[in-house]
Amino acid sequence: MIPAPFDYVRADSVDDAIARLREDPEGKLLAGGHSLLPAMKLRLARPSTLIDIGRLRDLAYIREDGDRVAIGALTRHHDVATSELLRQACPIVAHAASVVGDPQVRHVGTIGGSCAHGDPAGDLPSVLLALEAEFVARGPSGERTIPASGFFTSLFETALAPDEVLTEIRVPRTSGGWAYLKFNRRAIDWAIVGVAAVRANGGVRVGLTNMGLTPLRATGVEEAIASGADPAAAAARADEGTAPPADAFASDEYRRELAKVLVRRALEQVLA
Amino acid sequence: MAATETFVGRSVLRKEDPELLTGRGRYTDDLSVPGMLWMAVVRSPFAHARIRGVDVTRALAVPGVVAAFAGSDFRWAGPLLMAWPVTEDLKNPPHYPLATDVARYQGDGVAVVVAESRGAAMDGAEAVQVDYDPLPAVTDVEAALAEGAPLVHEDLGTNESFTWSLTNGDVDAVFASAPIRIEERYRIQRQVPNAIEPRAILVEPNIATGQFTMWDSTQVPHVVRTAMALATGISESKLRIIAPRVGGGFGSKLQVYPEEALALELARRLGRPIKWTETRSENFLATHHGRDQVQRMELAADERGKIVGFRAHILANMGAYLRIISPGTPVLGAFLYCGAYTGEAYQVTLTGVFTNTTPVDAYRGAGRPEATNAIERAIDALARRVGKDPVEIRRINFMPPFTEATPSIGGLTIDSGDYHATLDKAIELFDLEQLRKEQRARRERGDVRQIGIGLSTYLENCGWGPSRVIGNVLRYAGGGWEAATVRCHPTGKVVLVVGTTPHGQGSETAYAQVVADELGIAVDDVDVLFGDTDVAPSGWDTYGSRGAAVGTPAVHRAARRVREKARAIAAHELEVAEDDLEWSDGAFRVRGAPDQARTIPQIAFSAWTGHNLPDGVEPGLEASSFFDPENLVFPYGAHICAVEVDTETGATRVLRYVAVDDVGTVINPMLVEGQVIGGVVQGIAEALYEEALYDESGNLVTSSMQAYGLPGPPEAPTIITGSHVTPSTTNELGIKGVGETGTIASPPAVLNAIVDALSPLGVTEIERPATPEKVWRAIQRAKGERA
Ligand SMILES: Cc1cc2nc3c(=O)[nH]c(=O)nc-3n(C[C@H](O)[C@H](O)[C@H](O)COP(=O)(O)OP(=O)(O)OC[C@H]3O[C@@H](n4cnc5c(N)ncnc54)[C@H](O)[C@@H]3O)c2cc1C
User: What is the predicted pLDDT for the residue at B4?
Assistant: First the structure.
């Protein structure tokens, strides 16, 4: 519970952070620290330098951006959860942020950190995947936009290059039904399985939390709904293409069953 | 004038809270002394491995590291104290602070590093090179007893440490002739006590005097002092153990640990203060665990469900070594496999088994939650078998009400009890009828979310004593008495010194209430000192619900002695005979002339100056008591709980919980309620969430706060408490004990409720903890059996 030795620098801008990342390839950005510091305390992560971007408050915002809402990467879960704008324009994001950990975690952890960490058990990633959100990254050669479908690449891995900073996440305005069902044992726990469902273009898009190495789209379910199946029949395909983990909390078999039950319930809610 | 208000029986706010709640409480980790070094322990990552060599060279090269030692660098005066050899032929391999040849559980210490900072000590520990030769490991009791199992202690030739048994009546005959026999099998999972404050130690040597002061986050400074003398050879007179504020223990700090002996030995060796604070990860691996039994519980009964025979066969996991009371822990429950019920024959067999796991020892309830689980789950199974309601079957089996000590079929002599009374009251508070109606409605409409109602009526034994019984009959090496001294300052303010070591219970407040009433002063005028072997040299500390039941009578007697001495002085000053004085309204008053009076503060001043004392009366106003109880005390009660189970996912939550307990005389209802609620929440977590789970090779899988299931506020339902009082006949105050009732009663109530919810689906048993997946699997299994 005492990390290995490391250096600490505070970045005074995104460009400064990028420069620091280039200087020390073993360096790591520090946002809320609520994923990175626990790993360091267990000596599972041993960055040589912590580049603190936590104080770049100009990356903490939630604002309208045409038919989208733009969320700064350093916006804290609590601010996402309580944003009036999000509650109206894209309520599933606010709701998902409200079920992350506990109040202490939500007041420190950031949406950018949640995504950049690439944890398939995180609540926001599957929601953002279902929303087909966009991720804005800045690196030495400027800014680029990454679609959600290409952002989460593997377990704790994303499309971000080692010297890129995630700066913004853009979510569409939604008008139809939505549901994020998080199944966990205790309120503070990560999801054993989570299911995000949103209505879009007449169909339904479904994201799955903790059903594989990355957050996943339940494409089988989406197809079934598109071709007129009822929620129960569509939900039976919830685990298609998934590879759920088996751990101290649940077996993979149980996770598959949970996914089916939760997808059916989410669909019933969304289509009601 | 004297305070006219009295305090016992009232919810006086906790004296200790202003300090604790404003962060002014000083815990061991808050302390530092000049020149202090930090210690870090190198622990085996393997559950079982031969240690081929330990090389500390690289550790010594880490900046800040001062010294590093392997287990073989120490010569101990004796092993760590094991104080409860429950049988004569018990096998107890000596346990030294560091392993030398073989590491026997994941977390077993193999080397130690000392450095100028905590970080450097940990970096040094990481740099120690240990050459391990991994060996096959065994973690499960049944596997450990199987032919060809890996041996935890090879030289013993077996993993069995002891078998202890108790028989009352002709068990075989009773079972042979009974028309109904049931046999149930339960697994009590292992738990991690998880006190909020991890262990911490600071040892300061005085190289001139040879004295050592050890600040220690422990429940048992007195026991630690003796055990340290035995392990290191340092005389007890040179050891001062101080338990400052201690953030909970739940039994995990009644232990004597390797780190205590190591820190003391290193302070002696290096001549510098040594500090160690356990990390949470270490707490999971190296602080003792609790529970972990496989139980076979049999009941013999007539067709109506009246029980005639009880037979329990228990395999108790001891872990890798016997620790201070590991073998005694199951024995603490051995008399309770009959619950509060009558019968004609009783038999319990306990087998203690070594495994490659963290040592197992007392955890809140110690042995009694296990016993209560067996009988309270089994009596529900019997009820189902004979077609009786769980309430009715308990009523026909209860011991009838009694106010004088009465023998039980389990071999105890119970102080007092009225088991029907607590059950009736619990049913009333719970609104059983209304919940049964709701349950029926949901069953009829096939609701996905079913309701279940579970009952647990328990009887327990606590208030550890009397010394001659626990010593001579139960073979416990320690004493069961308690000590207190009441000392009046010249102004009449009082210092109370106790031999118990409260660590969160609120005992300071309860004791002060008793002293205040006895001496006619205010609670705020009583300061309570404890937890320092120089300040309170005599006592057996706090565990096993003994703080109130054994500690308070000592406090009360000491205060009474002070008052009796004051009576003589008051009579002298008032120029009347002692018999002409009566104690009323907080003062000695002349009979018939109540205005002629002396208060304790007045007498205290007289006793202090000594100007006008009666002949033969010594100056000073101070008295002590050593109280050794005549018997244990026997709290009991009835807990009822309603759960809602999502039959598609297995998710279970507690909807409603009622606890009605008889803990004898209540000194402070708020403290009692706090103990009950805390214990019940802990027990709900035992039923639903918590498990120390090992994998095949002996790795502790649930070794973090993330993976282990401690409950938080959202998991705690509203708990309604009620009480019924039959004063204990064991002590003059009628006190029983309340520290452990909650964890003893609650797990079977929750588990019985889950089975009740699912019984229409054909579920008859649910494994602990009842995680969503286990509940879901039980439902699938029952469906499969029906199909
Ligand atoms: C007790 C507890 C409970 C929790 N429960 C949940 C839960 O239920 N659900 C859930 O989803 N999460 C949960 N979390 C995780 C929490 O949401 C974290 O805050 C979040 O995962 C990471 O955000 P952070 O700002 O703390 O990131 P950090 O820990 O600071 O960083 C995480 C990783 O992302 C990188 N990073 C951070 N920001 C950027 C950026 N802008 N650009 C590029 N890389 C970046 C860092 O270098 C690091 O590798 C919990 C955490 C704790 C401690």
Answer: 63
Distances (CA, A) of B608 to B576, B622, B623, B643: 21, 10, 14, 62
Spell out which residues of chain A touch residue B704, defining contact as CB-CB under 8 Å: 42
Cβ–Cβ below 8 Å for B709 and A186: yes
Identify whether residues B584 and B724 lie together within a single domain: no
B400 within some domain: yes
Contact A185 B689 (CB under 8 A): yes
A35, A55, A249: residue to mutate for ligand 1 pocket, most atoms within 8 A of CB: A35
Residue B186 lies in a domain: no
Contact with chain B for residue A246, Cβ under 8 A: no
Interchain pair B707, A187: CB under 8 A? no
Same domain, B694 and B750: yes
Residue nearest to atom 3 of ligand 1 (CA): A101
Direct distance between the N- and C-terminal alpha carbons of chain A, in angstroms, rounded to an integer: 48
Are residues B747 and B724 located together in one domain of the fold? yes
Q: Is residue B759 part of a domain?
A: yes
Alpha carbon nearest to ligand 1 atom 6, residue: A101
Whichever domain contains B271, its CATH number is 3.90.1170.50
List pLDDT tens digits, range B258-272.
999 999 999 999 999
Tell me, yes or no, whether B447 and B517 share the same domain: no
- Other C-beta atoms lying within 10 Å of the C-beta of residue A178: 25
Joined together, the tokens standing for residue B406 give 């009465």
Phi and psi angles of residue B48, each rounded to the nearest 5 degrees, phi first: -155, 120
Whether A191 and chain B come into contact, CB under 8 Å, resolves to no
Angle subtended at Cα B236 by Cα B235 and Cα B241, rounded to the nearest 5 degrees: 130
CA A266 to mean position of chain CA atoms: 19
Say how far apart CA B102 and CA B154 lie, in whole Å.
10
Give whole-number Cα distances, B525 to A108, A201, B296, B560, in Å: 45, 75, 53, 17
Cβ contacts (< 8 Å) between B651 and chain A: which residues? 183
Give yes or no: residues B511 and B607 share one domain.
yes
The CATH classification number of A57-172 equals 3.30.465.10
Count of pairs with CB atoms under 8 A, one residue in A, one in B: 57
CATH code of the domain occupying A178-271: 3.30.390.50
Q: How far apart are CA B658 and CA B723, in angstroms?
A: 11
Q: Rounded distance, CA B238 to CA B229, Å?
A: 9
Query: CA B117 → CA A210, B35, B265, distances in Å?
Result: 40, 11, 19
Domain limits, chain A: 7-52, 57-172, 178-271
Structural domain range at position B219: 31-135+197-247+253-286
Using CA coordinates, name the residue in chain A closest to B703: A248
Distance A144 CA to ligand 1 centre (A): 22
Separation CA B89–CA B567 (nearest Å): 54
Instruction: Using CB atoms within 10 Å of the CB of residue B539, give its burial: 0 to 12 exposed, 13 to 18 middle, 19+ buried.
Output: buried
Query: Which domain-ending residue is among B592, B607, B627?
Result: B627
Nearest CA to ligand 1 atom 38: A113
Question: Is there a single domain that holds both residue B295 and residue B282?
Answer: no
Q: What is the pLDDT of residues A1-59, one digit of tens each?
A: 789 999 999 999 999 999 999 999 999 999 999 999 999 999 999 999 999 999 999 99
Residue A72 CA to ligand 1 centre (angstroms): 15
Q: Are residues B91 and B226 in the same domain?
A: yes
CATH of the domain at B350: 3.30.365.10
| B242 three-state secondary structure | strand
- Residues with Cβ within 8 Å of B677's Cβ and at least 6 positions away in sequence, in order, are B716, B719, B721, B742
Answer yes or no: CATH 3.30.43.10 is held by domain A7-52. Answer: yes
Over residues B158-187, the pLDDT tens digits come to 999 999 999 999 999 999 999 999 999 999
User: Alpha-carbon distance B465 to A205, whole Å?
Assistant: 67
Residue A105 in tokens: 């975690």
| Whole-number Å distance between alpha carbons of B181 and B274 | 59
